[in-house]
Amino acid sequence: MEKNPAPQFACSQQILETARRNVSKTTWDYINGAAGSETTLRRNRYAIDSYAFLPRVLRDVSKVDARTTLLGHECRLPLALAPMGSMHLMHKDGATASGKAAGDFGVPHILSSVARHSPSDVAAANKGFKIYQLYIRGGMDWIKPKLDEAKKAGFQTLVMTVDAANYGIRDRQLINEFARPSADIVGENRDFQAAMTWEGMAEVKRYWGGPMILKGIATAADARLAVEHGIDVVYISNHGGRELDHGRGTMDMLPEIVQAVAGKAEIWIDGCFVRGTDVVKALCLGAKAVGIARLQAWSIAAGGGAAMHQTLLNLEEEIRNCMGLIGATSLSELNPEYLTRVTPMGPWHEHSSYRHLGPHWQEGLR
Known about the structure:
By secondary structure, the chain is of the alpha/beta class. It has one domain: Aldolase class I (TIM Barrel, Alpha-Beta Barrel), CATH 3.20.20. It is 42% helix and 13% strand. An eight-stranded parallel beta sheet has the order 4-11-10-9-8-7-6-5. The chain has a two-stranded antiparallel ribbon with strand order 1-12. It has a two-stranded antiparallel sheet with strand order 2-3. Helix 11 links the parallel strand 8 and strand 9. Helix 4 packs parallel to helix 5. The longest helix is centred in the C-terminal third of the chain and has 33 residues. The radius of gyration is 19 Å and the shape is globular. The mean pLDDT is 94.
């Protein structure tokens, strides 16, 4: 297994601390904040922490394989770098750095349509599995050129984000008077996003003509509708808690959606997943892949593509370590029997997985 013999970042906590020092307070609040009371964000973490492992022992775990296949593409880990539109705030290379790191490592990268770096530039840097995510800011006469551009650049799969009909009311941004970074790219008119329906989505799917992911599914009912429409991946997400306040944690949605999909589509999930143990829990409950979002932003802010690559190495070690310790040697062996529900230990927030940071670690930082 590839390792950096002297990594700058031995664990994600060091990534987090460095990222905090490298960006302004307004940028930090933007990437870490969520809607309203940030209850949905905290529930994402609470839901993950509500599961504990039931490890099995005296099994031969001398060889552990964390490789998988996602939409027919061989991947080194069951991970995807989730779409993030404001990566240029983290580092000048932004989405290009994420795409290159993902391709070099061997996991899919999802490019947001509101990223500052062009699809052609990001695709050129990424030698691996390339996915394009679309926000709707016009009718089909606006959508078709966007999809044509993505196809020409070499993107193989389309994501439509469906949980962002309205932009979340985010207190941290309002307090900081922080302008939305993508507004000057796609404009303020979200009427087309708000007006999108299952019929409209189906028209987009027909024009795209390839694999399609719906990101933002939060109920079994919508998961069943997605399957009926021939969607290839049901992507469970609540936008990191950034749109709807007082939603459920995504891990609480996972079991019922797995049952509703019944193997007819792959299931991906995101929502506060920052450690290898978090990933393994989702796989045990039936997810096929986990999206890395805020941890991706922290990594790019900490040191661009090199830090992102190190984060993926660290996650690989954490996933393989966890699998060995619970008695599983391949992803196909993971199932709900390795988990039990517990009362989680609080508090719960975007940094609560890092117990060694201390309650006042941000003091004195700009």
